[in-house]
Please model this.
Amino acid sequence: LAGGSQAQTFTLTHNGWTYSEDVGSQGMGNFIDPNSVDHMYQNWWWFRFGGDSREFALSNQVFSNQTDPSSIRLVYRERDVLFDLQYTLTGLSAFQARVQIAFKIENLRNTDVTVDFFSYTDYDLNDTFADDSGVFLGPNFMTVTDGASPTWGTLTASGSQLLAWEMRDWPNLLNRLGNNAITNLGNISDPNPLDWTGAFQWRVTLTPPSTSGYSNQFVGSLVKEIYSVPEPGTLLALGLGAAAVAARRRRR
Model:
């Protein structure tokens, strides 16, 4: 994969929805509904190997491939461990969309390696940051609501090797992942966050590559969903429009 194409930014589109990230700036991005309202500020990944004294953001991209407008593959090689990410956007309706991020971590070393892998998400639902709050519903599911609108979002982590989670007011989590100390999530949340952020942590020990199995690999996923529920006036207009269409069809 080394020497292949690389992407510093990407944009996915499907059914009127847009999802984008600036991967050169730790996933600063957007999750935009068909009404041009943005619901996300950042999504990115950090890791720590056994023996490290801090976490590191994925940064050494070696390959990217966008197969169609709704999907992209990004591959990072960090000290002979591959992180292979596949993003897929699905616009389920005008008011609901899903981004599934499947990941594979692969050990290329000739020794075992323990990997702590962190997902980090900062929703700004309804294009506002000061009134988002979240609830952890367990064992791997977070839901986030926007105080100023009926819009809401979710995060679902794959359960295998899932170690912990946290929900914090910005920039608590981001600062801890980016400082010079070891961070382990504590299965806790701020009681009254004003600017919600959430993270998951997986931990796995991978063996060297061999022909006897796949113990040098670990696969998982993070699923992000936005439910961009329209305001009552919009719903009424949509209802009237649908009724008018139905009436025209009956008259035919």
